[in-house]
Design a protein that fits this description.
By secondary structure, the chain is an alpha+beta fold. The chain has 2 helices and 9 strands.
Length: 120
């Protein structure tokens, strides 16, 4: 069975650094799908202290990850990585369910869910 979200070691390392910097040790990483963006849906990541009743919980590279069951079908098999370049660093998200995305890569849509596109 495919993991809902796959966190690379590089992304996990960066998340742990952010948790420490923001005094969020012991929190869970929430990976979510929100409405909006050029293509209709956008990704969200945040820290949370408590799991919700409808959450799926994952454990990868020492990080507890939560995803709502509603977002799980949209994110199923999504890989989150962290890349550094001369222009800076950032998280990259590869979602095999996305059929279209905008140029920035943070907005997308799937065959089953289009979301609510916004003007860019």
């Amino acid at each position: 069975m495919t993991e809902v979200v796959i966190l690379s070691e590089a992304a996990a390392y960066r998340v742990k650094e952010m948790m420490k910097h923001n005094e969020e040790e012991g929190s869970m990483l929430r990976v979510a799908v929100n409405g909006g963006g050029c293509s209709g849906l956008s990704y969200g990541m945040s820290f949370e202290k408590e799991k919700q009743e409808d959450d799926i919980e994952l454990h990868q590279h020492g990080i507890d990850i939560v995803v709502s069951t509603e977002d799980a079908s949209i994110l199923n098999g999504t890989t989150i990585d962290y890349k550094e370049s001369l222009m800076g660093g950032g998280f990259t998200i590869d979602n095999p369910n996305a059929i279209a995305s905008c140029g920035c890569g943070s907005s997308f849509r799937t065959a089953k869910k289009e979301g609510t596109p916004e003007s860019c």
